[in-house]
């Protein structure tokens, strides 16, 4: 699988971080936070979620993504930036849920992620899910 790295955002304040994704255009895109650019618990949860999806540990990925979303609710950063990262975490959790054959919850996460951020990666995942599920 050809991998590409797309830098998507650079955040200021406490959440000075950037999100990146690796996947080819025909697969789901999982977002991660680059090393040492966010508070350790957030970075660890966010990236562990994506790693568990890639490793096909979908139940664990869902739980870890949920933890990342909860950490973001308490984040002391500009609202727009928190919304973007929350959107990315919801997208990652949606992919985990879809891969675990929990299509309803997965689609709900992707639609919520899309409503929070107009990210091309989130849009890609939603479009991919709808195609895969023939919606």
Automatic annotation (TrEMBL):
Residues 1-23 form the signal peptide. It comes from the Bacteria. The keyword Signal applies. SUPFAM superfamilies: TPR-like. Keywords: Signal. This is Orphan protein. It comes from Pseudoalteromonas marina.
């Amino acid at each position: 699988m050809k991998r590409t790295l797309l830098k998507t955002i650079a955040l200021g304040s406490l959440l000075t971080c950037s999100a990146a994704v690796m996947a080819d255009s025909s697969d789901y895109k999982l977002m991660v936070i680059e090393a040492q650019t966010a508070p350790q618990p957030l970075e660890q949860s966010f990236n562990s979620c994506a790693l568990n999806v890639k490793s096909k540990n979908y139940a664990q990925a869902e739980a870890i993504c949920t933890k990342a979303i909860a950490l973001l609710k308490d984040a002391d950063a500009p609202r727009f930036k928190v919304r973007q990262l929350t959107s990315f975490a919801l997208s990652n959790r949606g992919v985990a849920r879809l891969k675990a054959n929990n299509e309803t919850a997965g689609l709900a996460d992707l639609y919520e992620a899309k409503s929070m951020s107009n990210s091309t990666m989130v849009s890609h995942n939603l479009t991919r899910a709808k195609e895969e599920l023939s919606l």
